[in-house]
Amino acid sequence: MRIIAGKFRSRRLQSLPGTDIRPTSDRLRETLFSILLGGDPEALEGSVWLDMFAGTGAVGIEALSRGAGMVYFVEASKAATELIRQNLQSLKIASGFEVVQHKSERAIRDFDARQIKPDFIFLDPPYQSQQAYRETLSLLGSSLISEHTLVIAEHEKRFDPGEKFGRLQRFRKIEQGDAGLSFYR
Question: Taking the model in full, what pTM does it have?
């Protein structure tokens, strides 16, 4: 697993052994960021991200590599939060991030209380935890987001996380391999 582009391009990231963490593939991350950039290499400059169910931190680190100003990595697993810290340290990233070891519901409430309004929220719960999609998207649809926030959910191609969650409405869905990305505003 490697960083696709930006200042950390081609640098490798570590993962945990086993199947507890399923990192977003290089190819899917490349597709995601191509869509988000829309041909403008500076489109993410200074943006604020939430990388929910962050796992290895690959998506958030990719965002930092491409100019994000701040990334909040949210992960419930202690082993995964340590892995995120190790990946950040190996790239010598010392600022522009916060690693939060909480379940997504608590993190969202904390960010809402702190009045953090992210530009992008990426969520990638374990595929087998379909309820986590609904719970997280529902909570996001009733708090935290602004009219400009873009929420992206990675999911199994054959699973549909849903069309509407409070103020969030899906406007695009793409499929690649056995994965899908649903985009909400």
Answer: 0.95
